[in-house]
Structure prediction request, 231 residues.
Amino acid sequence: MPYVTSIVVAAGSGKRMGAETKKQYLLLDNKPLFIHTLEVMEKQGKITGIILVVPPTDLHLCKELIKEYSIKKVLYVVSGGDTRGASVYSGLQAVPEDSEFVVVHDGARPFLSQKVLEKVLEAAILEGAAIAAVPVKDTIKQINPGGLVQKTLDRSSLWTVQTPQAFRKDLLLECYKKAIEDNLQGTDDASLLEAYGYPVTVVMGDYRNMKITTKEDLVFAEYHLKQGGLD
Prediction:
């Protein structure tokens, strides 16, 4: 079984949430959001260790919360950067040298199922890189700067990308180093592999695997939880 390390990114400021507390620490079922996410990784047998990436000012707080909720697999808690990419790269620096694969997941996606996580890991181990995504349901239109419709896109080929995203560690590290040299900012980790010509396998995700970004998302998450949403 390959050595897999999880990088959980919880270093955002949460400005879009509009709350005094950063979103990763907001309570869902009386537990911080990012703790729910860590528990998913904790339960996954294929994952040996976890690197948690948090704001530089919150290292001590997060270490205390990890102890409080008895998360055993966290190897290191490290400081994030000014962008998500910088935060992931910071996490990569802390991944053990002998770890063969990494799986990157957003700390604010607490509804990740073990089924989706396993499918992404299995695909990455076979193919080198894999991401979770779901088909777009809505009609998508391309709009020009003046606010006029340019064209309607064929949604049959459009997917909404989620995390987890899993990769051979050496492959992801190589692409991040190249991106830094080229001053390339990716919108997700897989986009860096795409930019340098590496194939990425898409695995069917789950529409419930939402990223909690706004107050409305949190209200929906609480409702979803009452319906038995966390597995």
